[in-house]
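Example (one chain per record):
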Amino acid sequence: MAGRSVLFVDDDPFFLEAIGDFLDEQGYRVRRAADGLEALKAVREEAPDVILLDLIMPRIDGGRVCHYLREDPRFEHIPIVVFSALAARDIVRLPGVSADAYVAKGPLQIVTKNILAAFDHLEAHGRSLPAEEAVFGYEGFRPRRLVSELLTMKRDFDQLLQTMSEGVLKADEADRIYYVNPPALAMLGKEERELIGTGLFDAFGTTCREHIRQTVEGLRGDPSTGKQEHFFSVGERRLKANFAPLREEGTYLGLLLILEDVSHLPQPQSS
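Predicted structure:
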C-alpha cells in the first residue's frame, strides 16, 4: 500500500501527529482529520485509498462516519481500518460500525507494526475476508470499564433523540450540521447523508434562510442572549423552532435547534 493515500482520523493530537508522521515516513500520502466532521469533509474533497479511523470522537463518532460512507455509492468501496481503544464487545455496540480491519490502540512501537499489518492484509485480500479475520493487537487487551459505561449512556441518549417527536438538529461553531434526528429530516424533507457536514442555512428554503442566518448571528455575537423562538415555513409545513446557543465559558460552540411541526395549529391573526 506504500505510495497510496491514507486519511487518518483521530481526536488525540499525539496519535494524529506520531502515527501520521510514521506513515509519511513509510511512503504513504497522509491527510489528517481531528474528528468525524473533518473526516467527511476530507473524503468528499478527495477520496483516499484507505481510512484509518478512531471511533470515540466529538461531534461525529467513527461509527457514524462508517455509516455515512457505506451509504454513499461514491465512497462505499473505501477500506476502513478501525483504530480504537475499545474492546470488540464495545465496538459492536456502536451503531453503524462497518470496518474491514481492526487495530487496538496501545504503545506506539506496537501500534505502528499492527497498522502496517492491517494495511498489508487489505492489500493481499481486499475486502473479501470477514472482518474478524483482520484483528490486530487485541491479544491480552483489557477494556476500560468507564469507556463501556459511557458508551451505554451515549447509546441510550441517542435512542431517546431518535424516538422523540420533536426534530433535533445540532451545528458546530462554523454552522456545519453534525447531528439531525428522523423527525427533523421529515420536517425538512431531507435525507441524513445530504445534511451531515453541510451548512446549517442550506438546510432551509430560500424564503426563511436569511432570517435564520440573522438569528444565528445574533446568538453568536451576544453571549447574554439565550434561547429564541421563531416560526417559519418549509414547503407545506409550518414549523416552530427553538434556537439554543451552545457555549462554554462564554465561547460560542454551536447551536441546538429544536423543531416542532405546528401546521395543524391555527396561525395567529395579524393586527
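Caption: The domain at 164-261 is CATH 3.30.450.20 (Beta-Lactamase).
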